Amino acid sequence: MMQDSLDLTTLIFLGLAVFVIWKLRSVLGQKTGSERPPFNPLARREEPPPAASRDGDNVVRLPGAGPERAAAAPVATAVPRNWKGVVEPNSPAARGLDQILQQEPGFDPRGFADGAKVAYETIVTAFAKGDRKTLKTLLSREVADGFERAIQGRERAGQTVETTFVSIDRAEIVGVDVRNRVAQVTVRYLSKLITATRGPQGQVVDGSPDKVVDVTDVWTFARTLGSRDPNWQLVATEAGQ
């Protein structure tokens, strides 16, 4: 009799356990529409928009000075450094670099010059192709307007430009100016290019598709120091000597 009672009690509890598990599964297994999608480590994450600047979109990432470091940068007086190999020691450019480091100790002039090389090749190539989308994200409004006028002039004339980079031999900082927390860094580029402009019938109207030419350009980048956006923007271009 005791064995029969034990078996009956066991069966009742087993039945209750199965019922509870079935109810939990029926509830927890349902989708409500508010679940997060599965994590995909290869998916591109959307970043919050950068803080607005006076001239729009920016270019040239400041090495070693992300939003956290920019926000926490001390305002103490910077110790003058020997900028030999970067700019002329005790020059206005050297004093300008000292001013930048006063507000952003993570600034790396050599890393900046490397980033400026990438920006230079990207912008020149996009301009030759008439790639407005790329240019819009890299230039200040004033520079973008000038590039747009040149592209429209080519299009009206039925011209196309072919540009191939052979090398960028040098990108050196030649000027630094800091006023009202806005830093401007001027870079002189020495490069070798193959460039040719063709007319509507494919004929070469300027340059040569076979000749390597030496090109000197002087570009100026600007950024508000201490801002959360670590990028610089191209604000001026000119042909160098």
Automatic annotation (TrEMBL):
Highest taxon in the source lineage: Bacteria
InterPro entries given in the database record: NTF2-like_dom_sf, Tim44-like_dom, UCP031890_Tim44-rel
Gene3D superfamilies per record: 3.10.450.240
Segments of skewed composition (Basic and acidic residues): 43-58
UniProt cross-references to Pfam families, sorted A to Z: Tim44
Domain Tim44-like: 93-239
Coiled coil: none
Annotated stretches, region: Disordered: 31-71
Protein name: Calcium-binding protein
